[in-house]
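FIELD: query
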Amino acid sequence: QVQLVESGGGLVQPGGSLRLSCAASGRDLSLYAMGWYRQAAGKQRELVAAITSGRTTNYADAVKGRFTISRDNAKNTVYLQMNSLKAEDTAVYYCHANLEIVGFDDYWGQGTQVIVSS
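FIELD: result
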């Protein structure tokens, strides 16, 4: 029922910026913790940024100061603003939703590819 659709990925030069969006349909996700994960070629999927229903945020050390996660509950959408992009940020980025109160009701998007290269 719940679908998460990421958008905003693409190819950018080092130092550039992108804003990823994750639009949810099928359910109001205001009570869900939302997160952005990424998976680079040959590596495990890792948490990049997360935001709770109360808008508490946390970030991977590699992106602190460069990425910002936010949410607009009226639009049922979560964003990831990515600035000062590095080649090491190249990965497929996935949106994730988890119902905080139970922990087992979770959903994944299909991913959007980000390539940082000259």
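FIELD: remark
The first strand starts at residue 3 and ends at 7.
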